[in-house]
Amino acid sequence: MRAALQSSDARCLALQVGLWKSHSKHKPEEGCFVAQQKKAVQKGMSNGNLKNSTYTNLKSLQNIIHEIELLQSSRDRQVEEAMLCNQRLEQELWSSKETVAALEDCNRALKMEQVGMRRKVEEARQALFSGLGKVKELEAKASHVPALQRHILQLESELLYYRSEVSKLQLPCNTRTEQQPSAGSRPGQRCCLDGQHDRCSPTGRAVTTPDKMEEQLFRSVEGQAASDEEEDKWTGDQQRQVDEVKRILTRLSCCGERCDDKAFKKLVSRFGSSRSEESCSAVVQLLERVTRLHKQLELRESLAEIDMDQMKDSLVQELQQKAEETELLQMELQMLETERVRLSLVEEKLVDILQLLQQLRDLNVSRRSLGKILLSTLESCSDPQHGKAHILEVLNALYHELAACEILTTGGPLERTQSQQSLNALIISC
Predict the structure, then answer these.
(1) What ranges do the domains of the chain cover?
(2) pTM of the predicted model as reported, rounded to 2 decimal places
(3) From which residue to which does any coiled coil extend (predicted)?
(4) Three-class SS string for 337-384?
(5) Which of 59, 272, 290, 300 is most buried, taking the most CB atoms under 10 A from its CB?
């Protein structure tokens, strides 16, 4: 069609040039070639001899005029078609520009989304690092548990030591066994001495009288009563002290469980055989101190057990929470990684499409063909699908359509020359 238009345009232009030249050769008063032919025809009508020649000339002139009119009408049609083609090309150009702008916007949006995804990945990594740091802190706290256990064992060993000290406690041995007989014999001895002193005479002979014997008997009875009263008083004090010792010893767990009966009996027997108030007070103070130490040790053990249980519970809860957070972060990191891979694929596909478009632009491909390729791609991917996979499918289809273009498969020099000739013909026709 372009070759026919070009040949008809050339013929029309040649005829117009010939007509202009014929008109330029005639003078204004002589008239144009058509007027002369008409006059010749009229003269031929009057002159019968020149009838055949003028008829042929008129016939040829009419044919020329008819051909010129046909050429002009064909030229007008070609001009209209060229204008319509130009309008279609302009529309295709605008559509391709809009498509390129949409692709650039999509590329920018994808780049922004990729930047956001990278930022989220970095935040997830920072959160993961902080979680790992907290886990390490919890592990460091958990490493203190053996030290606390050793401290508890030390306290238990101290408790055992104090219990063994109580069992091994020995009181100072004072000689008290001779005091009770001596206390009863002293008044008798005194009475005997007094009696002997009274019975002694200046000459050295002993004289015994009934009054003196009665006095000695009274004195011995009085001394015996005093010794009995003193012994009863000491027995009462000893019983009270023994009760106090028993009460203090029963506070201890070892004595409460009747596990150190031998030590208890030994201590009581030695305490009972002694009448030293200092040793009794020392025993009482020692037992009170042991009781206080035992209470402090039990309090420390209970506090250590409570602290250990609380620490174990808190550590277990924190470890479970950190494990859940780590799993969530790993899942989010995996999702971000898949999204990053998808965006990288989309970016690579967009780069390939832009390279193909640049190649087609260098090959002077018409925008109409590019618009057809784009429309066919959109029609082939016009299924009502939504989501991120549909974008990649559309880009793949567009890439395959552009790669399957005839210009890329058959080569570009011949097509480039043909497109250049068509453009030159359009310029000449306009």
Answers:
(1) 144-322
(2) 0.31
(3) 312-339
(4) HHHHHHHHHHHHHHHHHHHHHHHHHHCCCCHHHHHHHHHHHHHHCCCC
(5) 290
